[in-house]
From TrEMBL:
Domain of life: Bacteria
Protein name according to UniProt: Carbon monoxide dehydrogenase
Cited Gene3D superfamilies: 3.30.465.10, CO dehydrogenase flavoprotein, C-terminal domain, Uridine Diphospho-n-acetylenolpyruvylglucosamine Reductase, domain 2
InterPro entries, sorted: CO_DH_flav_C, CO_DH_flav_C_dom_sf, Diverse_Substr_Oxidored, FAD-bd_PCMH, FAD-bd_PCMH-like_sf, FAD-bd_PCMH_sub1, FAD-bd_PCMH_sub2, Mopterin_DH_FAD-bd
Keyword Ubl conjugation in record: no
Lineage: Bacteria, Pseudomonadati, Pseudomonadota, Alphaproteobacteria, Hyphomicrobiales
Record keywords: FAD, Flavoprotein, Oxidoreductase
Gene Ontology MF terms: FAD binding; oxidoreductase activity
Domain FAD-binding PCMH-type: 1-177
Organism for this UniProt entry: Pararhizobium antarcticum
Transmembrane portions of the chain: none
Length: 288
């Protein structure tokens, strides 16, 4: 349970952090909150020779409403997300999701950028970001580029980040006023990763669903955006037959591993149940 030896670097600008990561190459890892990386280092499943700590970089904790988006700096902690009046008012599902991540001690240090950038399919924020249509600002030696959360995840711990790039900012379109939302997570105990989880954001008008977006957590090698399931719901009254069809479409795209959280078939069915619960909560919350 003791990490291997490594050199510690603490840059004060994004530019110097990017330069360090590029110079040190595959032997270096950026450090945000550390709650994914450090446990891997303790078990020697990851043994970087260099850690580049992002904590001293100014500007990575911004939290602003800019036009029709909210902009969240990558080093913003889950605790800050939970306690942000701005986010609670505009994108309340962020708070709901952050509250079921790990435990309070981890949420004080764990960052939203680290949760999104790591590529761990068990992390809660990536599927939510896909559900919300968020994009990530990636910063490297060539400047900034923007990548949709729906295109960012390529495999387990594999992302669209190029060598030397850092996820520096998350941009989330503000959902319409009166939208319904829900994040439902099944876990074995407090602090655990999800056996399965589902994020839902919908809008309703005159009793009819006018838009629907669904994200699924920890039921594949990547987070999943269940686009077809969302399309099935649009134009319906969220009647039982339509919900059943949407759940079946969502379950069909899952490919969970059989592990300590249960066999693959069980986890697929739990994803469907979490989707039903999240959808019902979203329906109740939506202003019709």
């Amino acid at each position: 349970m003791i990490p291997g030896t490594f050199d510690y670097h603490r840059p004060t600008t994004v530019e110097s952090a990017v330069a360090l990561l590029l110079q040190l190459g595959e032997d270096a890892r950026p450090l945000a909150g550390g709650h994914s990386l450090i446990p891997l280092m303790k078990t020697r499943l990851s043994a970087p020779e260099h850690l580049v700590d992002l904590a001293a970089i100014e500007g990575l904790r911004r939290l602003e409403h800019v036009g029709d988006h909210v902009v969240i700096g990558a080093m913003t902690t889950q605790h800050a997300v939970i306690n942000s009046t701005l986010l609670t008012d505009l994108v309340p599902i962020l708070r709901e999701t952050a509250l079921v991540i790990a435990d309070p001690q981890i949420r004080y240090k764990g960052t939203i950028g680290g949760n999104c950038a790591n590529g761990d399919p068990g992390n809660d924020m990536p599927a939510l970001m896909q559900c919300l249509g968020a994009s990530y600002q990636l910063t490297g030696t060539g400047g900034h580029r923007e990548v949709s959360a729906r295109d960012f995840y390529l495999g387990a711990y594999e992302t669209a980040l190029a060598p030397g790039e850092i996820l520096t900012e998350i941009r989330i379109p503000v959902p319409p006023a009166g939208h319904g939302y829900g994040y439902e997570k099944l876990k074995r105990k407090v602090g655990d990763y999800a056996t399965a989880a589902a994020a839902v954001v919908i809008t309703m008008a005159a009793g009819t669903c006018t838009s629907a977006s669904i994200g699924l957590t920890n039921v594949s090698e990547t987070p999943l955006w269940a686009a077809e399931a969302g399309r099935i719901l649009v134009g319906s009254t969220l009647d039982a037959a339509t919900v059943n069809a949407a759940v079946a479409a969502a379950e069909a795209i899952t490919n969970p591993a059989s592990d300590m959280r249960g066999p693959a078939e069980y986890r697929t069915k739990m994803a469907g149940i979490m989707l039903r619960r999240a959808l019902e909560r979203a329906r109740v919350r939506a202003t019709v």
